């Protein structure tokens, strides 16, 4: 079984690292001329999958924009995940789950176990109950060939105070999460591979402020939102992430989706070109 890290690496080698977000905001559905309903979100999301499949290797559906329609929205999300995986895309489900270990197992059963209703290649997880509390979820993910991205330094300004807070040994919360993720990728690092425990580091955040030592992240995939609508530039990945740039998966949602259905393919191509420029 090929694990998440190896699949992510193969996808980025083949198609570049860009990840396209699927965020059916009410305003975007309006721009697209679609109703703000589960059926509208379905049409929107499947159109994004279709445009993304020949152009990028990774997509990231945002669960909230489907959950807002209740069970009908969850059914659409299931269908979209399946359609994307069937089209050869890797799916990072962005649901930011996290809880004590026994409950984390429930999340794994929903999102990461083989044959789970919402099985995705990876799930974003919130590690603020301790990354260790997510080990049962990570174990189930890895047994199924899947993985996680743990929030370390998020793209939003409200996260800075909490995530750059320092413990008595001077380490920031963000750096602790990044180190703990990297520790879980030690075997992959030794084999020169990418691990299955990624981190989220917003491209809008300074690594100096968050205190993250990039050297430890050589085998740790980094999901990097914050480009486009939130202000960071795709051409600046090397400047922002330094030696960690090699494992960065930049993610864009609104700046691509705002192009509307007719302009979507061209917008994805343009963003992709910016990354490799
Ligand atoms: O985990 C995420 O994807 C995420 C983490 C983070 O720190 N910041 C962040 O914006 N995101 C998500 O990334 C997407 C960003 O969307 P745009 O700003 O429209 O590109 C949204 O789906 C956010 O929920």
TrEMBL record:
<keyword id="KW-0210">Decarboxylase</keyword>
<keyword id="KW-0456">Lyase</keyword>
<dbReference type="InterPro" id="IPR011995">
    <property type="entry name" value="OMPdecase_type-2"/>
</dbReference>
<dbReference type="InterPro" id="IPR018089">
    <property type="entry name" value="OMPdecase_AS"/>
</dbReference>
<dbReference type="InterPro" id="IPR001754">
    <property type="entry name" value="OMPdeCOase_dom"/>
</dbReference>
<protein>
    <recommendedName>
        <fullName>Orotidine-5'-phosphate decarboxylase</fullName>
        <ecNumber>4.1.1.23</ecNumber>
    </recommendedName>
</protein>
<dbReference type="GO" id="GO:0004590">
    <property type="term" value="F:orotidine-5'-phosphate decarboxylase activity"/>
</dbReference>
<dbReference type="GO" id="GO:0006207">
    <property type="term" value="P:'de novo' pyrimidine nucleobase biosynthetic process"/>
</dbReference>
<comment type="similarity">
    <text>Belongs to the OMP decarboxylase family. Type 2 subfamily.</text>
</comment>
<dbReference type="Pfam" id="PF00215">
    <property type="entry name" value="OMPdecase"/>
</dbReference>
<comment type="pathway">
    <text>Pyrimidine metabolism; UMP biosynthesis via de novo pathway; UMP from orotate: step 2/2.</text>
</comment>
<feature type="domain" description="Orotidine 5'-phosphate decarboxylase">
    <location>
        <begin position="17"/>
        <end position="268"/>
    </location>
</feature>
<dbReference type="GO" id="GO:0044205">
    <property type="term" value="P:'de novo' UMP biosynthetic process"/>
</dbReference>
<dbReference type="InterPro" id="IPR011060">
    <property type="entry name" value="RibuloseP-bd_barrel"/>
</dbReference>
<dbReference type="InterPro" id="IPR013785">
    <property type="entry name" value="Aldolase_TIM"/>
</dbReference>
<keyword id="KW-0665">Pyrimidine biosynthesis</keyword>
């Amino acid at each position: 079984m090929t694990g998440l890290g190896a699949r992510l690496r193969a996808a980025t080698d083949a198609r570049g690292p860009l990840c396209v977000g699927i965020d059916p905001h009410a305003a975007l559905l309006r721009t697209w001329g679609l109703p703000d309903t589960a059926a509208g979100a379905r049409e929107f999301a499947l159109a994004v999958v279709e445009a993304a499949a020949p152009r990028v290797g990774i997509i990231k559906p945002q669960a909230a924009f489907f959950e807002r329609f209740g069970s009908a929205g969850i059914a659409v999300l299931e269908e979209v995940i399946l359609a994307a995986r069937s089209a050869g895309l890797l799916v990072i489900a962005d649901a930011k789950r996290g809880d004590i270990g026994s409950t984390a197992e429930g999340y794994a059963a929903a999102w990461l176990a083989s044959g789970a209703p919402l099985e995705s290649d990876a799930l974003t997880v919130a590690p603020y109950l301790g990354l260790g509390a997510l080990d049962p979820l990570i174990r189930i993910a890895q047994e199924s060939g899947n993985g996680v991205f743990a929030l370390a330094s998020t793209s939003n300004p409200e996260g800075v105070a909490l995530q750059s807070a320092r413990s008595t040994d001077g380490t920031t919360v963000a750096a602790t999460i990044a180190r703990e993720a990297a520790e879980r990728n030690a075997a992959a690092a030794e084999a020169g591979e990418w691990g299955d425990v990624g981190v989220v580091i917003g491209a809008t955040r300074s690594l100096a402020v968050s205190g993250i030592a990039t050297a430890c992240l050589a085998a740790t995939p980094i999901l990097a939102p914050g480009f486009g609508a939130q202000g960071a530039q795709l051409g600046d990945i090397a400047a922002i992430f330094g030696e960690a740039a090699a494992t960065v998966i930049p993610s864009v949602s609104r700046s691509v989706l705002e192009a509307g259905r007719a302009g979507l393919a061209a917008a994805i191509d343009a963003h992709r070109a910016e990354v490799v420029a």
